[in-house]
Amino acid sequence: MKIEAKNLSKRFNREWIFRNLNFQFTETCYAITGPNGSGKSTLLQTLWGQMLPSAGEVIYSQLDKTISPEDVFKHIAIATPYLDLIDEFTLIEMVDFHFRFKQPRQNKSTKELLELFELSHAQDKPVANFSSGMRQRLKLGLAFYSQTDVLFLDEPTTNLDKKAIAWYLHQLATVPPETLVIIASNQEHEYPATATKLDILNYK
Question: Are 18 and 73 in contact (CB under 8 A)?
């Protein structure tokens, strides 16, 4: 899948977050870099269609066929620290609910997914009682194992300890090569050394 930004710009009031971004996301992995508060998350949300641009456009296509913005959600998976989970659900209920809308990668069962998330011990625990690290691992697991064409990750190791960061890096390495991965991060360990970098400060 290809995502193309054409003269893409976003501002809040009189402040431009980024301007005149012309870029094609066509390879395997990209890292959107920049310091905290530079607008990485805003750009990511604009690219996946949650936030409308102030100017320019985002064009989605697959095998030279244009995908309408209304249908993009079918093709993407997202993991961010600010992504909401349903606190009233147990872990099993949350996973089953998520995969009512997404096909699990390799048709993994719920039991297999919990083992891959390394959260089997908490299968009956309400999400409301999860630690911040467990919540982030759940968000990442749901995104990694959704059968989608594009994977968006925003500051993916937020709230993760050393062991969980190693788990994240292993999962990232197993993402199918045909999947487009776009990571917003100011931490070099969060994306592969081979990732194509896009510095948002170049578009201020």
Answer: no
HSE, CB side, 13 Å, CA atoms: give it for residue 105: 22
Inter-residue contact 196 to 30 (CB < 8 Å): yes
Say what the pLDDT of residue 64 is: 86
Amino acid at 71: D
pLDDT of res. 204: 87
The CATH classification of domain 2-203, taken from the options 3.55.30.10, 3.40.190.10, 3.40.50.300, 3.40.50.11540 = 3.40.50.300
The token pair at 27 is 């390879």
Residues 6+ apart with CB under 8 A from 145: 104, 105, 106, 108, 113, 116
Q: Cα separation of 96 and 89, whole Å?
A: 10
Residues (pLDDT < 50) of the chain are: none
Q: Which two tokens stand for residue 163?
A: 């062991």
Distances (CA, A) of 13 to 42, 50, 66, 127: 14, 18, 32, 37
Q: Which residue, among 10, 35, 36, has the nearest Cα to 203 in the 3D structure?
A: 10
Query: Exposed, middle or buried: residue 25 (CB in 10 Å: 0-12, 13-18, 19+)?
Result: buried
